[in-house]
Amino acid sequence: MAERPKLVLAMRRDIVDLVLPPALRARLDTLADVHPLLVTDASDPAADAAFADAEILLTGWGAPEVDAALLARLPKLGAVVHAAGTVKHHVHPVVWERGIGVSSAADANAGPVVDFTMATIVLAARRTLGAAADYHRGVQPSYPERRGADGAVVGVIGASRIGRGVLARLASAAADFEVLLADPYVSADEAARLGARLVDLDELCAGSHIVTVHAPDLPETRHLLDARRLGLLRDGAAVVNTARGRLVDTEALARACETGRLDAYLDVTDPEPLPEGHVLHRLRNVLLTPHIAGCQGTEVARLGAYAVDEVARFAAGQPLLGAVRVEDLARIA
C-alpha cells in the first residue's frame, strides 16, 4: 500500500469540527497522515515541525497567507486544498509559480448561495418587504395591489459560477421571468443558451424589476452599481446582492432606499458589517442579513466533503476537480 501523503490542517479552531465532522475526519485519516497540530497561527514556531513534511495544506476560513515566506517552511508542499470558497485572499501567485496545485470548494459553496438568491428574488418580485411592513401596521393589501412574480424582469450581473446557477434556476422556475444578462465575457449566443438576453449594464439597470449581483470583487468592479446606475432603475425595483458589498455604492443605495424608490436585499455590504445606526438598518424596504448566503451550520460539511475528495484525488495522482489556475485570480470572487 502506498504511503499516505502528510497533511496539515490550517483554519480557525471554531470551524474545524463543522468542516470535518467525525465521519469526514475518519475518512480523511484513511487518505492522509494528518498532523495532530491544528495550525491556527502560522507564526507559532510549533507549526514548523508540522510544515516540514507537509505535502498537503488543507485550509479553511482563517487560514494563513500562503506566500513565499510560508512556502520556505513547507519544502515538500504539493497542494493547497481550500475547504471554502475563494482562495484569492490567502494564496499568493508564488504558489502556482512553484508548481503547487491549488483547489477550492467554491463549487460546493455555490449551491446554497444560488438557493438563497433565488428565494430572495421571489421575495423581491412580490414586494414582500413593503407588504410585511404594512401588515405589521394592520394594513391588508387588496388583491389588485398584490404583486406576483410572473412577468418580472430579472437582471443578472455576471455569469459567474453562482450567476450561472441563478440563470439556470430562473430558466426552470415556475414563475415566468424575463431574464437579462450583463457580462463582458459572454457572447449573445452563450447568453441565449443560458436563458437570458445579453445587454449592457445600463440597459440591464433600466429594464429590470430586480437586479441581482454576481460579479467578482475587482478594482474595476468597485461601485459597479453607483449612483448613476441606481438612478436608471425603475421606481419600485429591487437590488439583490449576495456577491460582495463593494460592488454597490452603499451610500447611494441607502439614499435611494430611504426615499422608498428602491428595495434592497443585501447579504453583503460595504463596509461589512455596517456600523450600528446606519440608515439601512432601519428602513422598512431593506433586508440585511449577515453574509449567510453561503454554506452555514451543517452545510459547512459540504465544503469539507469536497476538500476530502480532493485529498483522495491528490493521493491517487489524479487531477484536482476544483483546481484554480493563477490566471483565474483576476476574475474570481
From TrEMBL:
<keyword id="KW-0560">Oxidoreductase</keyword>
<protein>
    <submittedName>
        <fullName>Hydroxyacid dehydrogenase</fullName>
    </submittedName>
</protein>
<dbReference type="InterPro" id="IPR029753">
    <property type="entry name" value="D-isomer_DH_CS"/>
</dbReference>
<dbReference type="InterPro" id="IPR006140">
    <property type="entry name" value="D-isomer_DH_NAD-bd"/>
</dbReference>
<dbReference type="InterPro" id="IPR050223">
    <property type="entry name" value="D-isomer_2-hydroxyacid_DH"/>
</dbReference>
<dbReference type="Pfam" id="PF02826">
    <property type="entry name" value="2-Hacid_dh_C"/>
</dbReference>
<feature type="domain" description="D-isomer specific 2-hydroxyacid dehydrogenase NAD-binding">
    <location>
        <begin position="120"/>
        <end position="293"/>
    </location>
</feature>
<keyword id="KW-0520">NAD</keyword>
<dbReference type="InterPro" id="IPR036291">
    <property type="entry name" value="NAD(P)-bd_dom_sf"/>
</dbReference>
